[in-house]
Amino acid sequence: MPVSDRPILILGGTAEASKLATRLVAQGYRVISSLAGRTREPAKLEGEMRIGGFGGARGLTGYIARENVSLLIDATHPFATQISDNALVAVASTRIPFVRLERPAWQPKPGDRWTSVTSLEEAVSAIPAKARVLLALGRQHIAPFSRRGDVHFVVRMIDPPETPPDLIDFELELSKPGKVEDETAFLTKKRLTHIVCRNSGGSASYTKIKAARDLGLPVIMIDRPHRPGTYTLPDIESIGHFVDETLGSLRART
Ligand code: NAP
């Protein structure tokens, strides 16, 4: 099969992944985007889509072989690690070209008061007694904080949870992150003393970080997992060039 007919597989689930699919389809490539299936009605993406787990690294390896995938792009979330580990195993055995798209992490700026930690457990321990903390984390990451009965938590979520968070002293805030001035007003009104969040990068949730800097509030920042040995590019533009160069040279050889 000519290289141009073989699909590029994008492991997605992020805004960047869906923009990348649009970009590569516009470049003339056949693209299959893969989603884990966590969202009930995911937005339609350009190109082809498949939904659901592959069944571990073996399943992904088999899928790549069956579909005759020409190139694999891991464009999953910075904190999604299992699927990325599976991708590394799959490319080691199928020997197809591979690249990771990952938006750059936020870097501390003058005035930021960050404590960097590497896990949720470390974040739990880093909170001082009697703090009032904005927990800016997904609902699946709240449970470890349940041992801190000496801390008041404000848990911000977009949709109401099916069951209340398993915390001793908390209030729920159902809203999305706003502009910097909204975040400043929110942090002040709730008399928050700390923020706990993950270093997701990107602009959408950065406003709280800027507001914390302006107010001099400490942020307990959960660092991203390290990904040694993964060739990573920071934006869609550079992935587009990588794909052209890589598949162009494969095409010249076939
Ligand atoms: P994970 O722990 O790395 O993956 C768990 C399992 O879910 C994988 O082993 C795989 O199942 C399946 N999976 C994950 N991503 C997949 C994909 N793109 N296509 C097909 N199967 C996939 O990932 P997670 O943290 O649960 O995140 C799940 C998805 O949500 C990811 O695609 C990620 O990009 C997106 N997301 C995650 C976060 C986050 O905070 N972690 C935030 C926003 C979006 P099998 O082993 O059966 O193949």
From TrEMBL:
Keyword Cell membrane found: no
Membrane-spanning ranges: none
Keyword tRNA-binding attributed: no
Keywords: Cobalamin biosynthesis, Oxidoreductase
One GO-annotated biological process of the protein: cobalamin biosynthetic process
Gene Ontology molecular functions: precorrin-6A reductase activity
Biochemical pathway: Cofactor biosynthesis; adenosylcobalamin biosynthesis
Protein name: Cobalt-precorrin-6A reductase
Source organism of the structure: Phyllobacterium zundukense
Origin organism lineage: Bacteria, Pseudomonadati, Pseudomonadota, Alphaproteobacteria, Hyphomicrobiales
